[in-house]
Amino acid sequence: MSSAAVLLSVRSLGVRYTRRHGPPFDALREVSFDLVRSEFLALVGASGSGKSSLARAVAGLTPCSGTVRLSAGSGARAIQLVFQDAGASLNPRRRIGAVLEEVLAPAPHPRPSALELLERVGLGREQLSAAPHELSGGQRQRAAIARALAAQPSVLVCDEILSALDTSVQAQILALLGELRRERGLGVLFVTHDLAVARRCADRVGVLHAGELVELGPPAQVFDAPTSEHTRKLWSARLRWPAPHTRP
Amino acid sequence: MSEALEVRGLRVSYATRAGSRGAVAGVDLRLERGAAHSVVGESGCGKSSLALALLGLVRPGGQLAADSYTLDGRAWSLERARDWSELRGRRVGLLLQESAQALDPRLSVERQLREALGAAGAGRERSLELLARVGFDAPGELLARLPHELSGGMRQRVQLACALATGPSYLIADEPTASLDALLARRILTLLASLVERERLGVLMVTHDLAAAAELGGGLSVMYAGTVVERGPVRELLLAPRHPYTEALIAACAAREPLDEPLRGLSGAAPQGVLERDGCAFAERCALARDVCRSARPALLTLGPGRDLACPPRAQGAAR
Questions:
Q1: A163 and B179 in contact by Cβ < 8 A?
Q2: Topology of B4-91+168-319 in CATH?
Q3: ipTM of this predicted complex?
């Protein structure tokens, strides 16, 4: 991959939380990686491994050390974050259309309309005037993605966005992310606890353990031939699909 | 005496502004002691309504009815509050999704257990024993801790210890692994499976995750629009599904093997509640649908031992 294709360059990223009692806690230490155009990079790890701290630090929502550099020419809103709880990125008291208009307003022309954005994520005119609570979980997550797209990002950071959704809806959202990557070269940083999704859908997988990136590579390589003991443990503890009968 | 929890023709409906809306439309279910059974389906299919109804619980505005409800051979009245209060907790326990609300945030683990055990059974020894049963190696260190001082996986095991405190023979677990990561989810499922195996607990688990059902083992019911469309041993259903909806759920599941095959999403949205029209509720999303599917609601037919299917095109030739 050529360096021109790099959308996001993360170097020596660290997140430190101070505690009232005891020494400060490093949620993230010396994490470095690049995200290239159209790439789906999954970040996996056990609870408390630093996945969400990483997502929030990259999106600029938490103070951090190190550097998060975007490719030249990207605007201030080039990184957008979508949360597990889509309600968190949608103002509950405003209609979806108004939420989108608000994000669209500062964008340069030509820019899409709120309706075009909703149609792009598989919603329609009916949802323009809907309040977030009137949508299903899957529709809300689509609306949150539309809201992120309104800022014309080059990188979408997704923090456990599938966790609250049915499996069939998860597959629909993953398909939508695939289309957006192909269509506009969107890079996706996908934080998930679902190893099967990472194994199946990601171009590369990063494994976090105790705040450190212990492994990074193509999913087949990372999971089938792990170099880190932590990766091996994580993968072997996943929920298993039954194996077909082997008759004696 | 048959040691089972058995319900026939269970119906749950909710009053809405537009009139009564069905959530569960006449489901039969049998859960034996020492057996596990999972109920899967998408949001709105009625799986949680079904599970909670087995404890006489309905959401506000809900109505519950059944042709019969028997527990270990005894018929229970759905109308008598006294029956439910005897049944809940003592005979049938409840485990909910791990959340901040599942345990009282102000009470230490010891106090939570003491409340669950009740005045008669309370005691430090009993508490320690319960914590050991749910897999804590050093339960003594846990007693003074508050819920927020525990990890999500630990809180879920404390919740399970509370559910087991009064010695129920059956446990209803509603999405017990939904907010846990894979490691912790597997730990809870292994624990439930060992309670089934070692203590002959009957476990009914509601989940949206087919891989969780596979891990628990036992039987599986697939629900759609308030009805069971396919039922059988979980292994068989996942490896050789017959209902097109079961097939679609599996195709959309990332945990399915082989892991190199692409995911196939299911187009359209799942209905919320029971559809008030004739025919198979899945027909409009089904490639196999024929006239017969649209004219009458398919009955759940027995294909073989413990294997039921509600799909006329697929049942033809398969049933004997």
A1: yes
A2: Rossmann fold (3.40.50)
A3: 0.86
